[in-house]
Amino acid sequence: MQLWRTFFQPSALLLTLALLPTFAVSVQAQRAIDKIRPALVRRMQAAAAVMRQEGAPRPLHRIIVGLKPSLTTLPSDSRPRIRALQEAVFNAPIQGTLKVRHRYQTLHGFSAEADGVAIGDLAKQDAVEAIYLMPVFRASAIESHPLTATDEVHRAGFTGKGITIAVIDDGIDHDHLVFGRLRDWPNAKILDGYDFADDDDDPRIDCNEQDHGTAVAGVAAGDGLSVTGTAPDATLVFLKVERSADCGQGIYRGDVVGALEWVLRHHLEYNIKVVSMSFGFGAFDNADICDTDPDIPRPYVEAIDQLDAAGITIFAASGNEGLCTQIEYPACMSKVISVGSVFDDDIDPQTYCISSATCEAGTAGSCGENRQVCSHGQPEADLVPCYVNSAGILDILAPADCARTASVQRGTTESCFRGTSFATPFAAGVAATLLEAIDGSLDPSIMKRMLTSTGVQVLDARNTLLKPRIHTYAALHALLDEVTPCPDCPRHTGNLTHPGTMVLPAPPFRSPAGLHQGWVLGTMGTDVNLYLLQKWFGVWQIVAGATSSTAIESIRFNGQAGEYVWAVQLHRGSGAYDFWFMQP
């Protein structure tokens, strides 16, 4: 929905006050000025200087307007209350030019393009809490499955089935072979999406150079052309935030708040459980400051809070500037899991361009103003690359450098996708596989604890910080031990001491026709098998088995009416086991 309002009578007094805040002003006018956040004031001042020097027309600024959530005279249901607040603002006298881009339905605010005159009039309204410059993000672009034991989780049967990941990025090549080459849009792999940069319902790429989002999506959920995502059977929704005018530049001017709200509005429809954002801006070393920064739009924080409350886990890239004590926004937020990266294998020497604000010693080479070269002569698995933004608030590390994923420009695959842009969807896909194992519902704080508490501790030599690198199998094992794959099923426990031993964790039972489900969780390091047997003419016969060479097995089997029994067999190691089953 777009709303244009253009008037040509200048609101000169307030505009002057907003652009020259040192002028003596009334209390009422000062309150209005204070609503315009510092980053937007600086942008307006710069625009005013250009207008004075060059006689240029008033530019439009991309803004997010936060509305006061505390007005109690409006309806109690949030959507009508928010709509009534928006209508009150739109119906008030506004001079200048205001173009409404997105009216948020569940967040207190809206996004727009407006000149300084309209911004001044917006600030005068009681319903307006604050006016923010819309953040501009930059893409964080710069043998992972065995390293993280993700392949073992896939062998155990968990590949993200039934879970949808929301990717917010520059665009998607929807019919790429890595996603099954499904020509229709939307399709069975990429279920839906929206373009929040060009304001239409088509998030597909505008040019071949717009390839970051396709590569990101392939890391999380690709399954084709020798690419296997961390959740190859997960589905996707895609929210595009790079304009066609910026095609392939990695500059995201789109309404990210609108994209997050889209996820909120559609998460039940598509079973969206995970959000992946491989972009950021700024530098923060404290989550509390990050959550309350005056230049961060209130609706942004509100969206993150609502997604977290809805049980949706959010991942964001820490950034690739080589900072040793700071990470980017939104990764720095307390309810977002921030992701840095490690090398996934021993590879050839690597060189990168990073910020000169790094603590990393520079090497020979030129990268431009305020940039420097950093390099690794002998990169090895679990080494933190020198480009990674790190800090005490960084949550996890995941593999990158080098990764094979989807490539738009070649129509096939990218052999070396790197950076925290890779690590972030890697972690998002891991989360999807874990969620599949417990039927899709988990508090994001528990997901964060599972990934951090079971990770392999890796030392970042630049700042001597130890950070956990994702270990997918260990996280899954810990999750099943705490949450259980079937909360309504009784837990049966026992011990297996000799390889080859087979036990019946529960007695035989008669069952009607229907779905049988069973899960076994052995001690870490053991290899257990799970079988379902049915009696035929007095003889027990195996009708389903799971033998993946791991301590975690599960079975889903649609069977006829009859007599059944479950069996657990130890193949390697020794230790305790837990077993759950559900009969039709």
Automatic annotation (TrEMBL):
The protein's UniProt keywords, in alphabetical order, are: Hydrolase, Protease, Serine protease, Signal
What InterPro entries does the record tag this protein with?
A: Peptidase_S8/S53_dom, Peptidase_S8/S53_dom_sf, Peptidase_S8_Asp-AS, Peptidase_S8_His-AS, Peptidase_S8_Ser-AS, Peptidase_S8_subtilisin-like, Peptidase_S8_subtilisin-rel
Report any Pfam family annotated for this entry: Peptidase_S8
Q: Which residues form the active site?
A: D169 (charge relay system), H212 (charge relay system), S421 (charge relay system)
From the UniProt annotation, give the residues forming the signal peptide.
1-29
Q: Which GO terms describe its biological process?
A: proteolysis
Task: Identify the residues that the record assigns to the Peptidase S8/S53 domain, covering every copy.
Answer: 160-455
A molecular function annotated in GO for this UniProt entry is: serine-type endopeptidase activity
What family does this belong to? Belongs to the peptidase S8 family.
Q: This protein is called what?
A: Peptidase S8/S53 domain-containing protein
